[in-house]
Write a structure and sequence with these properties.
The protein is mainly alpha-helical. The protein has helices at 2-24, 28-45, 48-65, 68-85, 88-104, 108-124, 128-144, 148-164, 168-184.
Length: 191
């Protein structure tokens, strides 16, 4: 029995990773199907953490599809599970997902509050990559809200963290964000 559970856990984790791959390749329906299979495996194993992780990933797919109601339900289910489990970083990721969803819907005040809550958790846990991502999300909200100075401050703080981490992709993204602010303000030399 223990061997069967271990195999089921492996299969669920594998399905979750395949779902991530499908999402990155833009195959959203395949991602949802694979996540659904993983979620069922985690339910059978009574693995609440695994279920929450899959719900979070499924919420990201639903946001990509513009399915706000399902995305919100998935993010809120993941957030509730992470709270029961005491997983602060899981909570921060779910808050970030909810924040992005609200930003896409134009609910910028709510989005900003959720991203600030996620940032606080990442700061409390000294998680520099999570902090950089939260700062980028905050910058994105400020940028959409026509607050370029606030956006620039967030993007530059994220850039510094990505440099510290030697995260070249994150650094490139942050540089692009800083350039977008300068461009929008007509500072072409700095862009």
């Amino acid at each position: 029995r223990a061997q069967r559970e271990q195999l089921s856990d492996f299969v669920a984790a594998f399905q979750t990773n395949i779902g991530v791959l499908h999402m990155r390749l833009g195959r959203l329906e395949e991602a949802l199907q694979t996540y659904g299979e993983a979620l069922e495996q985690y339910r059978q194993l009574e693995d609440e953490r695994g279920q929450a992780d899959v719900q979070l990933n499924s919420g990201n797919v639903r946001v990509s599809q513009g399915d706000w109601g399902k995305a919100r339900d998935l993010y809120e289910a993941a957030l509730a599970a992470y709270r029961r489990l005491g997983s602060k970083l899981g909570q921060a990721n779910a808050l970030g997902g909810l924040g992005n969803m609200h930003a896409y819907q134009g609910q910028l005040g709510r989005a900003l509050n959720l991203h600030r809550d996620a940032l606080k958790i990442h700061e409390d846990f000294a998680n520099p990559l999570g902090k950089a991502n939260a700062l980028t999300n905050i910058g994105n909200v400020h940028f959409r809200n026509e607050a370029p100075d606030d956006a620039l401050q967030s993007y530059e703080a994220a850039l510094a963290l990505h440099r510290q981490l030697a995260d070249l992709l994150g650094e490139a993204t942050a540089r692009g964000n800083v350039g977008n602010v300068h461009f929008k303000q007509g500072r072409l030399e700095e862009a």
